[in-house]
Amino acid sequence: MSGIQALITAVLQGLTELFPVSSLGHAVILPRLLRWNFSENDPSFLPFLVVLHLGTAAALLLYFWRDWAQIIGAFFGLGGARERRERWRLLWLIIVATIPAVIVGAGLEKFLRHLFGSPELAAGFLMLNGVILFAAERLRRRNAGTGNATGMSWQTALIIGLWQCLALIPGISRSGATMVGGLLGGLKHQEAARFSFLIATPIILGAAVLEVPHFFHHQAESGGFGPLVWLAGVVAGVTAYASTAFLMRYFGRHDFEALDPFAYYCVAAGAIALALFVWVL
Q1: Which range marks the domain in which residue 97 is found?
Q2: Residues 231-242: pLDDT tens digits?
């Protein structure tokens, strides 16, 4: 992978991991469209992705540091009784929403890895992702959200977690799927996005930690990573932080059909990519 390819991949990771447009789908589709000659099966590629995901997780921790600080403070008995109960409840909801993806991801890991090598399939699922986002906005009209994340039931958190499992398929967005679950569960767009980003942190960190042994193994064999890899991690983190700030502001100002622009993009991008794969590439 060249330096330009590494930096483009880092920016792509920082943007698409949090925008509801599927980072996995773009990671599978873009190299084929641009005819990059590196292989995703290369031993250095997985450690490279670990660094990018660590950068994204760091950005989420930094942006939502108050939420995590309050949760940790509640653990040590800081704050009033009501505040501690709310923070403990939020932590419980995050755990409940995280469990399904952990179980399904571990059970179907080998099967799902085969999907990563099919850009055509990823393009098709990217189109489906757009349809899901568009449909969710129409279904939500019947039950416009007024609630916040802390006040939802554990059953709603579990349903959001089940929606998150869809993102294990390249082309289906993790943030998009969890936001859809939140919107259909009665949350406003901004609260659905906030909860989506909060549960993203343990998922992204967990996925990165699982690959840490491969990271250190490759580092030992190669004599350490060059500055380009760490620069790519920083670029992914900065891009992810900017994406989070933009999306939270966007969803705060738009609570009606806010997912529609992303839906249109996914359908159009998936259809164009699929057409190119079939008739051109």
Answers
A1: 3-26+42-279
A2: 888 999 999 999
